[in-house]
Amino acid sequence: MNGGVTPHHPPVVLVVAVGKNGVIGGEGRLPWRLPSDLKRFKAVTMGKPMLMGRKTFEAIGRPLPGREMIVLTRGPVFTSPGIHVAHTLDDGLKCAADCARTMGASEVIVAGGGELYRQTLAMASRLDVTQVDLSPVGDATFPHIDDTIWRETSRTKFTKGEKDDASFTVVIFERR
C-alpha cells in the first residue's frame, strides 16, 4: 500500500504526542498532562474513524464523542459499548475505511499505541506529531521518523499553557 491510499482505503494519518526521548506512554498512561494539545487532538480527529490498540482505548476509558473508534485486540472476548472491535490489523483498517465512508471522513486516524504505530507507519500518508518538551520515563515509544521517507511540511510551537506540564511543538510530516 503506497502512502495508505488505495481505491478502497482512505489515507491513514498517525496522530501522536512524543517526548524528546521517543517515549509516548508508560504503564498504560500518557506521561504528561497537556490539555492544550488534547484540545488540538480533538479538533484533528473529530468526525473521523480512529484505530487504536486495546491498551490505548483502556487508558482513554470510554468512546470519544464524534468519532468512530475501532479497537484492535488479540483478546477474543474484549468488548465495550460504542466501539468496533477488530482482531487483525487488516480487519481494523477495513472497518475504519467503512466507517470513513459512512461518516464522509477523508482519512483514518491511528491513535496508538506504540505497537500499532510501528505496524501502520509504512502505510501512513501523514504524521501529526506533537513533540513534547519533556523526556519522561515510559515503556511505549514511537518509531524513528526517517527523513528519507518523510518531509516536514509544517511546524507550530505552542508555549506551555496554564495546566500543561510542558511546552510542545506540532510537526506535520508528509510522505515523500
Short description:
With 176 residues, this protein is α/β, with parallel strands linked by helices. The chain has a single domain (12-175), classed as 3-Layer(aba) Sandwich (Dihydrofolate Reductase, subunit A). It has four helices and ten strands; from the N terminus they run ββαβαββαβαββββ.
Low-confidence stretches: 1-6
Structural Rg: 15 Å
DSSP strand content: 25-35%
Tally the helices: 4
Strand order of the largest sheet: 5-4-3-6-1-7-10-9
What is the assigned CATH homologous superfamily?
A: Dihydrofolate Reductase, subunit A
Shape: globular
Q: Could you name the CATH class?
A: Alpha Beta
Backbone structural class: alpha/beta
Number of domains: 1
Total number of beta strands: 10
In the CATH classification, which architecture applies? 3-Layer(aba) Sandwich
**What's the mean pLDDT score?**
94
Q: What does the main sheet amount to?
A: 8 strands, mixed
Helix content: 10-25%
- Through-space gap between termini: 14 Å
- The helix/strand series, from N terminus to C terminus, equals EEHEHEEHEHEEEE
